[in-house]
């Protein structure tokens, strides 16, 4: 299969409305922020053709750019299905990381494959500020894993996320980013140049 490009990923995300652009009718995030963009990559798992392309893009990157990966770790909850698809295709052990330890049983935070002493790549669906992804990295490192990289489907490209990953010295790669998606949306005449600028200005606030 030919290499799947960031622009192709952007087209898929827009087509299935996993990412929606609404500069004239902003969405309200859980934080209360009024945003001209909303990302729900959970929609991907309900679209087999798109899901196949996303998984193939992940696998192409991991196979060509990262070597000797012992464990694929999904973030809870949205990263879990993608990690499962990838680990199945690459025949690599998988784990997933809860937001916090269970309050019962063995009180595990990390489930599945053992990560101590292993080279682990974290699979995420979305990078906004980066905080939740880096909490997963922390949990894996405390458990003795070497976190090689965080790989995600999409990022808003916020400065605070770049700064957070840099401060923690954790490499980050995304299959698609906001700049690429906005270019594709404008070329398809889904948004105007002025609307594109409004979305970029919103992103640059953070």
From TrEMBL:
Cell membrane among keywords: no
Check the record and name the InterPro entries matching this protein.
OPRT, Or_phspho_trans_dom, PRTase-like, PRTase_dom
Which top EC class is given? Answer: transferase
A Pfam family that the UniProt record links to this protein? Pribosyltran
Q: Which GO terms describe its biological process?
A: 'de novo' UMP biosynthetic process; pyrimidine nucleobase biosynthetic process
Q: Where does 5-phospho-alpha-D-ribose 1-diphosphate bind?
A: 98, 102, 104, 124-132
What EC number(s) are associated with this protein in UniProt?
2.4.2.10
Q: Pathway involvement?
A: Pyrimidine metabolism; UMP biosynthesis via de novo pathway; UMP from orotate: step 1/2
From which domain of life does this come?
Answer: Bacteria
Q: Which UniProt keywords apply?
A: Glycosyltransferase, Magnesium, Pyrimidine biosynthesis, Transferase
Q: Which cofactor does it need?
A: Mg(2+)
**Coiled-coil segments, which residues?**
none
Instruction: List the molecular function annotations (GO) for this entry.
Output: magnesium ion binding; orotate phosphoribosyltransferase activity
Reaction catalysed by this enzyme:
orotidine 5'-phosphate + diphosphate = orotate + 5-phospho-alpha-D-ribose 1-diphosphate
Record's family?
A: Belongs to the purine/pyrimidine phosphoribosyltransferase family. PyrE subfamily.
Q: Cite the record's note on assembly.
A: Homodimer.
**Primary role:** Catalyzes the transfer of a ribosyl phosphate group from 5-phosphoribose 1-diphosphate to orotate, leading to the formation of orotidine monophosphate (OMP).
Protein known as: Orotate phosphoribosyltransferase
Q: Which organism is it from?
A: Dolosigranulum pigrum ATCC 51524
In the record, what lineage is assigned to the organism producing the protein? Answer: Bacteria, Bacillati, Bacillota, Bacilli, Lactobacillales
